[in-house]
Amino acid sequence: MKRARIQIIASMTIFGTLGLFVRGISVSSGELALYRAVLAALLIGLYLLVTKRGIRLPDIRRELPLLLVSGIAMGLNWVFLFEAYRYTTVSVATLSYYFAPILVTVVCPFLFRERMTGRQLLCSCMSTIGLILIIGVSGFGRSGTDLIGIAFGLGAAVFYAAVILLNKFIKQVTGIHRTFLQFLSAILILSPYVLMTGGVHLGDLSGSGWINLLIVGLFHTGVTYCMYFSSLRELPGQEAAILSYMDPLVAVIVSVAFLNESITGFQIIGGALILGFATLNETWARQ
């Protein structure tokens, strides 16, 4: 359990830097999502080949539909998130997207009969207030593009919550095999989408664009998703959801420190609530 907590915290911290690299890749959101899935699948496929950890069809046949659907949800989640980055700031896009853990926290008691303690409810509510402060104050009331970005972020949140919940139903497929198959499923849905909405434009990328793409595909996706989904198998849904708030907090810091995007007092208060109660939840979970 301790290792799983460390893995998910590290994963969320890395995910929080995603917007910094995505901003340097000049292709459409669908195309970027496709390349992300392809690069990550190649990396994990090579690892499985070298370590001779093949996938046996009898072991995955029963859960293949769940793997397929969760992979499709993952690909659509990326498309919506990347679109959100294009219409609003990285911080607002990411924080809009992070209504997903709230959805998971609410749904888990019904789907998995996980008991929600009073402490978890308090942490979830206070973290939600933090998100409301950040999104409600810094997003709404601005330009129409901000509202479009928030809408895309919330759309990404729905698909992200679906990925988390579907993974809780997958019991027989190990973390790295599961992630590999989900990336293949994402490629399956994203390939025709990209071909029908503009095609491939890899030749338009600059040298820095290629570097950013490789970082996003190999590191942020291939390596980090393996850590993330492996940790989900060992943690209760509510705890994983609340620890996931590390991602938007890091995204706000990256947005201000590296992308020179503005931050308000309400964003600072909201970020403090998210970090404080996520940490408090982890402390209580160890007791």
UniProtKB/TrEMBL annotation:
Classification of source organism: Bacteria, Bacillati, Bacillota, Clostridia, Eubacteriales
Domain of life: Bacteria
Protein name, per record: Transporter
Organism encoding this protein: Pusillibacter faecalis
Domain EamA residue range list: 6-135, 148-278
Family statement drawn from the similarity comment of this UniProt entry: Belongs to the EamA transporter family.
GO cellular-component term (any): membrane
Pfam families attached to this UniProt entry: EamA (PF00892)
Alphabetized InterPro entries for the sequence: EamA_dom (IPR000620), EmrE-like (IPR037185)
Keyword terms: Membrane, Transmembrane, Transmembrane helix
Residues that span the membrane, as ranges: 7-26, 32-51, 63-82, 94-112, 121-141, 147-167, 179-203, 209-228, 240-259, 265-284
